[in-house]
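Sanity check. The docking grid for adenosine-5'-diphosphate depends on where the pocket ends up, so I'm generating a full predicted complex first rather than guessing from homology. Inputs follow.
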Amino acid sequence: MTLRSRTIRLGILISTIIIAAIVIFQLVWLNKVYHFEQKQFNHGIARAIRGFYEDINESVQQSNNLNELITSPDDQTFYVRINRNNIDQDTTKVYLQSEFEDEDIFTDCYAGLYDARKRQYLYTSYLPSATAAKKQDVTLKIPGLPYNHLTLYFPHRKQYILSLMNIWIISSIVLLIVLLLFSGSLYYFYRQKFLNEIQTDFVNNFTHEFKTPVSVINLAAEVLSQPSIREKPEKLATYAAIVQYQGKYLQDQIERLLRHAYSESRSLVLQKEKVDLHVLIHEAISNLRPLVHEKNAEIRCHLNAIHYALLADKGYLLIVLTNVLENALKYTKVPDIIVSTTNLNGNVFVSVKDNGKGIEKKYLNKVFKKFYRIPNGNQVATRGFGLGLAFVRKIVTAHKGKISVESTPGQGSEFHISLPL
Ligand code: ADP
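Predicted complex below; grid placement will be based on this.
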């Protein structure tokens, strides 16, 4: 990683931490404001009730602390102890309304006078407010208290408190939107940078992949065009073979790119048929015989799955197995590869284990991205476009399967593929 990339990553990490801290701070702060407003509301109610006691000429004696006269089973309900039971409905309504207005409590309320002797409400009044919603059909609960009391029930208390916090909530939403936009731009910037990097790598690989065979073909053609070559049939055959080999190599690479471009432009259409996975594994190994030979590699098979007949696209599945096996051969100096299969929970698992250079933890997920090749090290010596595993993952996902990789750098990698039976 270059110094610049590291600085950018550090910058993004710090920005993410700051954004998370701002969001947490904002939420904590909103919560505090809500509790503060809630307290204010309760104090306002207490003061209004004191005023109401005075209005009906009922004294709150020193010994009778206001807190002892009010019980509140929940945030919306208050039971206010009253000695009299002969306050008429209009008086209650008028006094309460004026006390609430004095205390700036602008939410609707149901007030019911409970007669303990009769064990029922004598009446229930609705005190509307300009800001609150319409009257609903509310029956006040009977708490079973042994004394006369006035029940105050505020159905829209929560909404009212939230409406008092409107300005804070709006400013928090604006802040969150700004932060979201900022995070989005940050993500876009980072992604763009990542894409630029892999694009550069791709162009480099592309040049390398195509330039070398073309130069070799040109050189061979030059030799073949010399008249003296006709007298040396052996040399002629060698150079013709070189042209043929490089031509075939170029054709393979072009086909790979075309296949990828095709698969990118549309979703895979699977032509499913009954496939014998074990036969397919042997077919993939046999396809790679020249590379196995060239590398002096050993491939051992532990095909222990009992159920290995799949409904799958044979051609695509062969590409999956060939690609993973080819990588195991490509990225290992003297390959000793183990291919195994097992069954678990209605799936068949294929694992391809190599003894190669391995993949560092930070690259494990990236290798499945298109055009991605692990920087420095193995890609210089090995050919490729970084498309194989991206395509492999696409095929496995289309079959509702999964692919993952484990690796110990310096010791080797193991690719796991699971496919539903
Ligand atoms: P390509 O092999 O054409 O570069 P792939 O998509 O098949 O593209 O692989 C992406 C990258 O993952 C490779 O460039 C290589 O760095 C890494 N890789 C894949 N398989 C292995 C493996 N078995 N061992 C080590 N590295 C691997």
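Relevant for the grid: The chain has a mean pLDDT of 87.
Also worth noting: The pocket of adenosine-5'-diphosphate is lined by residues 323, 327-328, 331, 354, 356-357, 359, 367, 372-374, 378-379, 384-390, 413 (CB under 6 Å).
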